[in-house]
Design a protein that fits this description.
9 helices, five-stranded mixed β-sheet, 249 residues, binds zinc ion
């Protein structure tokens, strides 16, 4: 290509997406003179879901800006916490993020998850149809134009993934209100109404407190794995739970 040369300065948080030889400081790119800045940024490897403000010579420009010769482009990281206007905050997770999905549900966050690989086009369509923020570590998936909103999940460790998503989108936490198996909402239940489906030991040891309105799975007090209790305690301590603000004097 013999188009205009521009200089890009990519925010440190986004440099992991860029090829090694372009990671240090500013990088010079030769464009074709007709591609948008959004396309140029994506070509560098940065998903647009992760790019915040784009500045040309210090002035904000949209992704549709066509860069001209000699421009200095600053690519900032998306601002945290990130607002997702236009619909209640709901997520859709790809096939690799099952643990994260279950932990979000444990905290009461609406997190749809496909345990079978339905393919990128179907996932993207689902995001659009249900207006869900698509969470993925697959940059190719996040580049799909159909998705309603998306976010790259930066870590491959579930603990860090959870902190990443909670810190970025600050969803309202309501622990123990959602089925970790299917994402359905839990309804209060008493032991008598569900005891037929329980094993004898369980019947004797625990008080049933909730049942999933969608799949019927029964949840009972005292039977939570200590690890799950710790996930909830840690998340609420750091990010707060629904009602916390109202009860603060
Ligand atoms: Zn369920």
């Amino acid at each position: 290509m013999n188009g205009p040369e521009i200089t890009l300065e990519v925010a440190p948080e986004l440099r992991l997406f860029v090829a090694h030889d372009r990671r240090h400081g500013r990088t010079v790119v030769t464009t074709d003179g007709s591609s948008t800045l959004g396309h140029v940024v994506e070509s560098l490897g940065v998903p647009l879901t992760e790019a915040g403000q784009l500045l040309v010579d210090g002035r904000p420009v949209p992704v549709s800006h066509i860069p001209g010769a000699g421009e200095l482009v600053e690519v900032r990281a998306v601002r945290r916490p990130q607002q997702v206007p236009g619909a209640p905050l709901r997520f859709l997770l790809d096939v690799h993020l099952g643990t994260l999905a279950r932990r979000l549900r444990l905290l009461g966050v609406d997190a749809a998850y496909e345990s079978e690989d339905i393919g990128d086009p179907a996932l993207a369509a689902l995001s659009a149809e249900q207006r869900r923020v698509l969470l993925s570590r697959d940059r190719g998936l996040l580049r799909r134009r159909e998705i309603w909103a998306g976010a790259y999940v930066y870590s491959d460790r579930p603990e860090e993934q959870l902190r990443d998503v909670l810190g970025r989108f600050t969803p309202v936490l309501a622990p123990w209100t959602r089925c970790t198996a299917c994402n359905g909402e839990l309804a209060a239940a008493d032991k008598d109404s569900v005891s037929a489906g329980l094993e004898q030991g369980t019947q004797a040891s625990y008080d049933v407190f909730a049942q999933c309105a969608d799949c019927g799975r029964v949840y009972w007090r005292g039977a939570h794995h200590a690890r799950l209790e710790a996930v909830v305690t840690d998340a609420v301590r750091e990010f707060g739970a629904a009602g916390d603000q109202a009860s603060t004097p």
